[in-house]
UniProtKB/TrEMBL annotation:
Gene3D superfamilies: 3.30.450.40, 3.40.50.2300, Hypothetical protein af1432
Region (Disordered) location: 1-20
Protein name in UniProt: Transcriptional regulator
Keyword Phosphoprotein: yes
Length: 528
């Protein structure tokens, strides 16, 4: 094989394809040459002369204003090491016969099947076509070009190389688009799961930097109702930015332009992305980066911002629904309070205890499939509704100062089922937990007992909704600790003793443990 490519380049039987060096391009500033990232091409050939001549012929070639950087491997084993280390190789000029007669073909399979690299362009070169018949190789191997060394003149080598680079460029662009769109889909899906405005906006600046890795900082700004520009969230180099006044003059001017309703702007060193929504004040994202985003990145950022605008609108609508639900809860709570004068302060204390216990269970890693941030957010307000069913109980029973007769007790116990029905009707068919749906669970189940002896359904153990098990403990604790028309307040030590005695019978032992941990942490109980 030695000398095949060199001999063929010097020997031009056609008379027109002799080795010709390209004319020197006009000299570019050194900074521009350094800034242009080179195309990486691997030469895999056991003939040192092939490497030398390939470098000479293509030394001055520039494609898309980028030079070529050659890496050399003199065996398939060396090529494997380079391929593993360099994941952005554009092409490989690959000899078939190296350590073995089929070393090059084995390397093709390694690239495509083991490395899973389908972007790199593979140009197979052979000085012994009989070792690898062209039709068989083209049919059986995922290569992009097949050249006998005897036909590789300087012009054909140039044409083949540039065609491979152009093909790689198109494939890389498609892959960047695919990855960018995948990032957008994942990012938006993650953002839309956020029901907290703070988490949503923090996620915005995090996700936009994931879409543009070159960015070293991102910040979200919004107009206030008074028309002033305010920093909402920042990350990277813009974490804790001191508001718009800390931005450079050009950045600040571009931010003002974007907030005024103009298009996104991209400059050297920064970009400003405009967000236009239907229900949210004008907003914009400032990105700082060493270079402006490319054309593909700009399109992806535009798509991302369009989806973000929808996300902000959805968040606004979600908050409106939340506000409506909170208003409904308070209205129902006021209704129950009107019927039972002791309810007001009791339910407020109950809400605080229920939230604290839920947070404690979350911190302990208990019930991980149920107790998440949303559960902890809902339970405090939902617990307000635990006795809303008392609106259906006659006043002479509800406000009786003494012990209830058996028939009166039976009527009183109906409040659990009544409350559940009222709240389920109010909750409608929402697929996700809401204040009203959790309130329905609590209203129905906070008089169930862990051993199955409670009412209205006689549920036991984990069949009782967790929110109901939490409220059951908090409800009894607070009711015993405070005076009621039919009883005096108990001493704290006696209440705690009852909780411990009823753990495993009336109450879920895990909830009792968490409740006592909360009381100890908050100083209500002294640590043992």
């Amino acid at each position: 094989m030695s000398g095949d490519l060199g001999d063929d380049l010097e020997d031009d039987p056609g008379g027109g394809d002799e080795l010709r060096f390209l004319e020197e391009p006009a000299e570019e500033p050194a900074a521009a040459r350094c800034a242009a990232e080179p195309w990486k091409i691997l030469i895999a050939d056991d003939d040192h002369e092939v490497h030398a001549i390939t470098r000479v012929v293509l030394s001055d070639v520039r494609f898309q204003d980028r030079p070529i950087l050659f890496l050399s491997a003199y065996s398939a084993a060396e090529a494997r090491a380079i391929l593993a280390a360099e994941r952005d190789l554009a092409a490989v000029l690959l000899d078939v016969v190296m350590e073995t007669d089929d070393a090059g073909l084995r390397l093709v399979r390694h690239i495509r099947e083991e490395l899973g690299n389908h972007a790199i362009r593979i140009i197979l070169r052979t000085g012994q076509p009989g070792q690898a018949p062209e039709r068989q190789v083209i049919a059986n191997y995922d290569i992009n070009d097949y050249k006998a060394k005897s036909e590789l003149t300087s012009q054909k080598l140039f044409t083949t190389t540039v065609a491979a680079l152009r093909s790689y460029q198109h494939i890389a662009a498609i892959e960047r688009n695919r990855q960018g769109l995948e990032t957008i889909v994942d990012s938006i899906a993650e953002l839309l799961e956020q029901r907290s405005r703070d988490r949503f906006v923090d996620g915005v600046v995090t996700q936009v930097r994931a879409l543009l890795p070159a960015a070293d900082g991102a910040a979200l700004f919004s107009l206030t109702p008074e028309g002033e520009t305010a920093l909402v969230a920042g990350s990277g180099s813009l974490t804790g930015a001191g508001g718009p006044g800390s931005l450079a003059g050009e950045v600040l001017a571009d931010l003002a332009s974007a907030l005024a309703g103009r298009h996104s702007l991209h400059r050297d060193g920064h970009s400003v992305l405009s967000l236009r929504t239907r229900h949210h004040p004008p907003a914009a994202i400032v990105l700082t980066a060493g270079r402006p985003p490319g054309e593909i990145e700009q399109r992806l950022l535009d798509i991302f911002c369009g989806k973000l605008a929808v996300g902000f609108d959805n968040l606004h609508l979600h908050e409106e629904v939340q506000r409506a639900q909170v208003a409904t809860v308070h209205a129902l709570g006021k209704l129950a309070e009107y019927k039972d004068e002791v309810t007001g302060d009791h339910v407020r204390r109950l809400g605080r205890w229920a939230t604290a216990v839920a947070r404690q269970l979350q911190a302990e890693g208990r019930f991980p499939e149920e107790v998440d941030d949303r559960f902890c957010e809902l339970i405090g307000l939902a617990s307000v509704l635990h006795d809303v069913g008392k609106v259906g109980i006659p006043d002479h029973i509800l406000r009786k100062p003494g012990k209830l007769a058996p028939d009166e007790m039976a009527t009183m116990r109906e409040h659990a089922a009544i409350g559940g029905r009222i709240l389920r009707d109010a909750a409608g068919r929402a697929s996700a937990p809401t204040y009203l749906s959790m309130g329905a669970d609590i209203a129905e189940s906070h008089h169930e007992k862990f051993d199955g002896s409670g009412y209205p359904r006689g549920l036991a153990g984990d069949a009782i909704p967790l929110a109901g098990r939490i409220v059951a403990v908090a409800d009894v604790f607070d009711a015993l600790l405070h005076r009621r028309p039919y009883k005096e307040a108990w001493e704290l030590a006696d209440v705690i003793a009852l909780l411990r005695t009823e753990s495993g019978r009336h109450f879920d032992p895990r909830v009792v443990e968490a409740f006592i941990a909360v009381l100890t942490r908050d100083g209500v109980l002294k640590a043992a």
